[in-house]
Design brief:
The protein has about 400 residues and is an alpha/beta fold. The chain has one domain (about 10-405): TIM Barrel. About 35% of the residues lie in helices and about 10% in strands. It is built from 14 helices and twelve strands. It has helices at about 40-50, 80-90, 140-160, 175-180, 195-215, 235-250, 265-270, 285-290, 305-315, 325-330, 335-340, 355-360, 365-375, 385-405, and strands spanning about 10, 15, 20, 55-60, 95-105, 120, 140, 165-170, 220-225, 255, 295-300, 320-325. An eight-stranded parallel barrel has the order 3-4-5-8-9-10-11-12, surrounded by five helices. The termini are far apart. The protein binds flavin mononucleotide. The site of flavin mononucleotide has 25 residues, from strand 4, helix 7, helix 10 and helix 13.
Length: about 400
C-alpha cells in the first residue's frame, strides 16, 4: 500500500490522513423536520472507525422548501445546531475529515414533496414515463438566484461553526448548479445563461459566497460533472473550462463524476465509451484535467480493486480515490485495504425487473440508503436485501412527506 495509505496535504494546509474518500451518498435518514437522526450520526461514527482520509456526507439541502428526498437533512438556520454538532463530533479522535455536501435540487425535485420547483429555466426533465414524478420548474428570478447563493454560504457557515472540517458544493448530477452549467436546462438570456462564462456565474458566485462566509482556511471542494453525456448538454470541453475557472478561484479539491437523472452515468459510467472497459468511469477525463489545473483531484465512480486505485495514484493522475457504494457493503473499507484483507470491493446491483425503475436507480439508490440505515442502527450490511423492500421504502418516504407537505 505505497500510495493509497500516504497522507495528502491540501493547498490550505489541511491534511487527509490517506487517499481514500467516502463520496457523498444521500442517506434519506434525517428526521421529518430535516435534522440529522441519531442513526445517521452513528453511521458516520462507524465509517470514521474504518479510517478513510475523508468522509463526505450525503447532500445537505440549503432550503427546506427544495428537497431532493423526503428525509434530507436541511441546514438553513440554527434550529438543529446541537445535532449538527453531534454529527460533526462523530469523527472525533480519528483524524478523519468530515465534509458535508451542500446542495439545491433545482428541477430534480419530486413533485410529491415540493410545492414549488425552481430551475434556471422552465424546462422539464426528459425521463420518459418517470418525468411524471417531476413538474415543469419555474424559472428563477434574479433575486431568487441571489437568495440561493446566499443560502449556500449560510449553510456552510453554520456547518463550519458546528465543527465540520470542510464542505463540498454539489455541482454535479443534474442538480441546480449543474442545471445552470448545461445549455439543455439553462436557456436564460440574462447574465446567468448563454455563454459558458454566464452559465458558470452561478457556481462561481456560490464558491465566492461560501468563501466569504467561512474564511480563507476552511477547505471548500466541489463535485462536478466531466460531462452530462446528453446531446446539447454540458460537454467535456465545457467542464474543462469550468474547472479552470474554479482552479483560478483557489478551490481546494475538485471531485469528478458525471451524468444526471436523465442519464445516470455516475452510477454506471458512459456505456457508449471504451472507458467501460476500464474500472473507473471517468479516468480519461481526469488524465486530461490533471494537465490543465493544479487543484487536487478526487475521482469517483466505479473503483473496485485496490490495484487499479494504486495504479491511478502511482500514475499521478489524481490525488484521492472516491468510493461510494462500496462503503455501504464494507463500512471499514479503508482499514481492510490497509491490512490487505480485501483486494476487490464487489457490490450488488439490485433490480426488480421494471426496466425504467431499474435503469434510473429507482431501486438501487434506496437499496443502498437502506444499507446505510442498517449501518447507523449498528447492523451489518445485508447483500440479499430485497429490491422490492427498498422500492417500497422510497415510495413510503415520499408518500408520508407529501401528506405532511399538504397539511
Ligand atoms: C444511495 C446513493 C446516494 C447517492 N447520493 C449522492 C449525493 O447525495 N451526492 C452525490 O454527489 N452523489 C451521490 N451519489 C453518487 C455517489 O457519490 C457516486 O458518485 C456513485 O455512486 C459512483 O461511485 P461508486 O461507483 O463508488 O458507487 C449517491 C449514490 C448512491 C448509491
Amino acid at each position: 500500500m505505497k500510495n493509497i495509505a500516504t497522507p495528502f496535504t491540501l493547498p490550505n494546509g489541511s491534511v487527509l490522513k490517506n487517499r481514500i474518500a467516502k463520496s457523498a451518498m444521500s442517506e434519506n435518514f434525517g428526521t421529518r423536520n430535516h435534522a440529522p437522526t441519531k442513526g445517521l450520526i452513528n453511521a458516520y461514527r462507524v465509517w470514521a472507525k474504518g479510517n478513510p482520509g475523508l468522509l463526505i456526507t450525503g447532500n445537505v439541502m440549503v432550503d427546506s422548501m427544495a428537497l431532493g428526498e423526503a428525509r434530507n437533512v436541511v441546514v438553513e438556520d440554527y434550529k438543529h445546531f446541537n445535532l449538527l454538532k453531534e454529527w460533526a463530533t462523530s469523527v472525533e479522535g480519528t483524524g478523519v475529515h468530515l465534509w458535508p455536501q451542500i446542495n439545491h435540487p433545482g428541477r430534480q425535485a419530486f413533485a410529491a414533496i415540493n410545492r414549488k420547483i425552481v430551475a434556471p429555466s422552465a424546462i422539464s426533465l426528459n425521463m420518459g414515463s418517470a418525468s411524471k414524478m417531476f413538474k415543469t420548474p419555474i424559472a428563477l428570478t434574479e433575486d431568487a438566484i441571489w437568495d440561493i447563493i446566499k443560502r449556500f454560504g449560510t449553510t456552510a457557515k453554520i456547518l463550519k461553526e458546528a465543527g465540520f472540517t470542510g464542505c463540498q458544493i454539489h455541482g454535479a448530477h443534474g442538480y441546480l448548479v449543474s442545471q445552470f452549467l448545461s445549455s439543455n436546462s439553462n436557456i436564460r438570456k440574462d447574465q446567468w445563461g448563454g455563454s459558458l462564462n454566464n452559465r458558470s456565474r452561478f457556481v462561481l458566485e456560490i464558491y465566492r459566497e461560501i468563501r466569504r462566509q467561512v474564511g480563507s482556511h476552511f477547505p471548500i471542494g466541489i463535485k462536478i460533472n466531466s460531462a452530462d453525456f446528453q446531446r446539447g448538454g454540458f460537454t467535456e470541453e465545457e467542464s474543462m473550462d469550468v474547472i479552470r475557472l474554479l482552479d483560478a478561484e483557489g478551490i481546494d479539491l475538485i471531485e469528478i463524476s458525471g451524468g444526471t437523472y436523465e442519464r445516470p452515468a455516475m452510477m454506471q459510467g458512459d456505456r457508449k465509451k471504451s472507458t467501460v472497459l476500464r474500472e473507473a468511469y471517468f479516468l480519461d477525463y481526469i488524465e486530461k484535467a490533471r494537465k490543465l489545473i493544479k487543484t487536487p483531484l478526487l475521482l469517483t465512480g466505479g473503483f473496485r480493486s485496490v490495484s487499479v486505485m494504486e495504479k491511478a495514484l502511482e500514475d499521478g493522475i489524481l490525488d484521492v480515490i472516491g468510493l461510494a457504494r462500496p462503503f455501504c457493503m464494507y463500512p471499514h473499507l479503508a482499514n481492510q485495504i490497509f491490512d490487505g484483507s480485501v483486494k476487490r470491493f464487489d457490490i450488488p446491483t439490485p433490480k426488480i425487473g421494471i426496466s425504467f425503475l431499474d435503469q434510473l436507480g429507482g431501486v438501487e439508490l434506496p437499496w443502498y440508503e437502506l444499507q446505510i440505515q442498517r449501518i447507523g442502527k449498528g447492523k451489518s450490511p445485508k447483500s440479499n436485501l430485497s429490491g422490492i423492500l427498498a422500492f417500497w421504502f422510497s415510495l413510503k418516504s415520499l408518500f408520508v412527506k407529501s401528506f405532511w407537505k399538504n397539511k
